[in-house]
């Protein structure tokens, strides 16, 4: 298990993710920023997740107002300071999810159908999004695949997926999902009847939800898995 980062290292990681290179934290944000990264308990994933929400390099290219920082500080509660548990970490990650626009929420939630540590090829994922109807053209003349690439990149920029197989130009050809993020997505997928995951164990997720719309097999067709299929009525599965 990795040791938590020191306060100084936490601060460097937090600020590096938020502020453009060479800039400093504005004076009016110093106190609230210190309180936020302290509540992350030195856990890099928590620090990066919260910093990604406040990132001034995001699509709108604008510094988030102070009240936005105050809202985040209040939402995460005690955070991970003083040895917060898994539920506190899930609360921090959930805030990153709820901060997404609706189209990105659906695309991210779809990643719950993939097994832990699975390398998800970018192009395959985008075509799956297209087949599901998650990508809709706006007024721009952007093709659906190019739109999918922009969605993929935005999720990576927000540190909700981990880029893999990055080429010389800095473009990722695949991604993975951190196990804690995947746990959160699977939980939300179950709550929203988004997907049922069958892995041949007693821990199959959303197995009791007959309204589930997607079915994911994450193991060989063993006898336990077959029994789960026979015992499950899912008339809305795609």
TrEMBL record:
Q: What is this protein called?
A: Disease resistance protein winged helix domain-containing protein
InterPro entries assigned to the protein according to its UniProt record, in alphabetical order:
Apaf_helical, Disease_R_plants, P-loop_NTPase, WH-like_DNA-bd_sf, WHD_DRP
Query: Where do the Disease resistance protein winged helix domain residues begin and end?
Result: 113-184
Polar residues composition-biased segments: 215-238
Renumbered residue ranges of the record's region Disordered: 205-238
What PANTHER family does this protein map onto?
Answer: DISEASE RESISTANCE PROTEIN RP, OS12G0273300 PROTEIN
Q: What is the lineage of its organism?
A: Eukaryota, Viridiplantae, Streptophyta, Embryophyta, Tracheophyta
Please give a single GO biological process term from the UniProt record: defense response to bacterium
Alphabetical keyword list: Plant defense, Repeat
Which Gene3D superfamilies does its entry note?
A: Helical domain of apoptotic protease-activating factors, Winged helix-like DNA-binding domain superfamily/Winged helix DNA-binding domain
Q: Name one GO molecular function term.
A: ADP binding
